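Record now logged underneath.
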Amino acid sequence: MLNEDEGSTAVADPDNELADELTTNETDEPDGKELSEFEREHYEQIKQLEVEALESEGIYLDAKSEAKATKEVWERQVDRLRSLIRSGPDTQKTLPFGDDVEPSADAWKETPIADVIELTAKQVEKLTAAGVENAGQFEELRSGLQKDYPDGLLSLNGVGAATIDKWEEQVIEWLYQNVREDEPADDTDEASE
């Protein structure tokens, strides 16, 4: 405890500090009553283990979050692998036809849906149960053209609005990148050449 002598000068009194510390420790117990040495030691062990448990919980939650993210990546890779295996070795797509043969305008519809949007294993099961394995079937479901699913993606059990929004953003981006028609050349550029 500090004694003040004339103004702001403070001098430490070691005997009073020790007395204050003992008083604080005696009343700093769980029920505000004085504990025996064994009870105090037990109480201190409880407090120490509680701190260690909280630290371990933080480490666990961080690891759990990282494991979940890693599992999602792994599931997407497994889905792509299964999709590739299901499609088989389609050598027709890799034959060189030459520049004069253009692919069908509807060829995009046969693209496996797992190559278009990110899906978990459970989501693949839900879409497969709804008859969706490729981009064309997904678009039919999304537009509500399937009679069993009149509300489109909203008709799928266990698929929430946030997931549907994410899928729609991904499929629209994929369609924009892979299906949109090339813009016609400007005739004024050709005339100036």
Summary: The two ends are 95 Å apart (CA to CA). The longest helix spans residues 37-87. Residues 1-11, 21-27 have pLDDT under 50 and may be disordered.
